[in-house]
Amino acid sequence: MPSLWKAHFEYEFAQDYMIKLREFLEAEKQNGQVIYPPSDLWFNAFLQAPFDKIKKSKESKSKGSSLYL
User: How far apart, in whole angstroms, are the C-alpha atoms of residue 8 and residue 38?
Assistant: First the structure.
C-alpha cells in the first residue's frame, strides 16, 4: 500500500478486528488455503487511486458523499 494511504489507515490497521482478520488470513494461508484475491492485490485499488489525487464531493440530495479522481 502506498505510504500516503497507509498513513490514513494506520489507526484502522491497529484495531482488534483488523488484527484478528490478518491473523486469520495468515493462518489460513499457512494451512494451504487459497485466498482470493492474492495478498499482493488486497489494496490494489489504492495503487490505482493515489491519495493526493482523490477529491471528496458532497451531494446535496444525499446524506452520503463520493470520492473521485
Answer: 23
CA 14 to chain CA mean position, Å: 13
Select from 22, 14, 63, 54 the least CA-distant residue to 39: 22
12-45, pLDDT tens digit by residue? Answer: 889 999 999 999 999 999 999 999 888 888 888 8
Residue closest to 50 by CA, chosen among 34, 32, 68, 65: 68
* CA 51 – CA 58 distance, rounded (Å): 18
Whether pTM > 0.70 for this model: the answer is: no
Phi, psi of 58 (to 5 degrees): -105, 125
**Bridge-partner residues for 57, per DSSP?**
66
Half-sphere exposure of 64 (CA within 13 A, CB side): 2
Residue extents of the structural domains in the chain: 3-68
